[in-house]
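Supplementary Note 3. Input sequence used for the single-chain structure prediction.
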Amino acid sequence: MASNIWSQEIYHQGLNKYKIIKGATKREVEIKSNIQMAAWDELWEKRLEKERMIIEKENALFEQQEKIDYAEEQTATAENIQQAISNILKGDLDENADFDWSYLKNFEQFPEPRPISKPFLEFPTEPKRSDEPFNPKQGLLNKLLKNKAQEQRNHFDKLFSEVHSYWVKNCEGIEIDNKLIDKENQEGIKNWERERNLYEERQKDYNLGIDNNIAGLTRGESEPVSEFIKRVLTISSYPFEFEKSIDCSYDYGAKSVIIDYLLPNKEELPNLKKLNYVKSRDSFKKMVHSEAYMNKIYDVAIYQIVLKSMHEIFSSTEKYDLVENIVFNGIIDSVDMATGKNITLCILSVSATQEQFAGIELANVDPKECFKKLRGIAAVKLSSITPVAPIAQLDMTDKRFVDGYDVIGGIDDEVNLASMDWQDFENLIREIFEAEFNSSGGEVKITQASRDGGVDAVAFDPDPIRGGKIVIQAKRYTNVVGVSAVRDLYGTVLNEGATKGILVTTSNYGNDAYNFASDKPLTLLNGGNLLSLLEKHGHKAKIDIAQAKLDKNRVSLS
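The predicted structure, written as discrete structure tokens, is reproduced below.
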């Protein structure tokens, strides 16, 4: 027998290789073919692995380049920020010179779209006895045999009756479902209209408050002017973010403004100098500015904030002829390293007239030298957090304030607050809030006797972030307090330029009152809250609405 009479064609798709394997026997050809295919498979796997490595390497190189680019971008941004901090006074100092309160009005329509009503279910067509399914053509047998014909009619009469009964029940179910759909649609529209009305009501109150502030501003009223200045300073932009907390006092007679401005701490300034990407570790490494540099740039930033703020006050109020002199007190929140307690310090104070400021080209000055030229007082290094005495301080005096008298010492759990003399009740509220705010260094003043007309007490909370002026009204009521009283309080908060309003009553509030106050700086305290507040400060009393109403009726009858 001749050799090499057996052969087999083999092909590798990945490598695109073709070969004819020959051998003396079929078994030999199979073995050789398997060996060749295994070799080709190994070669193919190596090629795939090589390609994978190339792709991974390319991807790694691409990711590395992205990270290198990111590091360079962050470094460039950090450099730009430091440059911008140094050049605060070279920017747009008049960005808020034309600030107009009316810009803040809200005329947007209610944002929620009117709900789309769910469609009603359609009623199926009523079946009729004359319909074709109930009147099949009669066969010849049925035509010839009357009994058969009658039997067929009876059958289809019964079938029609069953089908029609099912139709009636189906329609009854659909009618019930449609009533539920209609109810759901009506409730959806009703809820939407209620939310829209509340939105428009709040919008109207908000815009009315702005109108009142604009009118008060043009008349030179203290609170609207102070609120306007605070708003201008709050929206002022800087190269870095910090929370602005500003208190302001305005005297129209002297056309003078005193500002307490919570300045940023040194730690709030960005300190990134450079961001490097380390290839060997596949990580970023930050380089920050030295302590000496941060101390220096902190002084540069703070003095510029002071000068820019004073410029913004003069420029924004110039059209109203309101301000001729500014006292700026720079305040810092810090920690007393000796006690570990939080402290608030004045670290700089400066005063300037409009005439003095008009002669300064802020874009060209050295901020610290300009501050000195204005006879400002501050430590040599602001970063040392050294307190200084303010040139002038905010005045909390108000001609409406009167001396209170002691009421709380004479009450016990037999005293019915709902029957208390209204003037005694207002003094009691002043005393209890005095106890509440005194722990944080606050002060509470009672106003002249008002008999529920206007402001009953004013609290001054010194906390530069959460505090401010808080208006308090006392309502010794035996009926539910409606939304009108809460509206009045909100209007008072706006007119007074207060940060918050508190309404205290011996009774309770209606849902409309709570709804109105829900998104406003208002706190509603009912009788239960008042008793809890008294108990918190070691006093007890009671509130008996029914007894108070009887006492009131007896007085009116006598």
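Residues 146-219 form the longest helix (74 residues). DSSP finds twelve helices and 15 strands in the chain.
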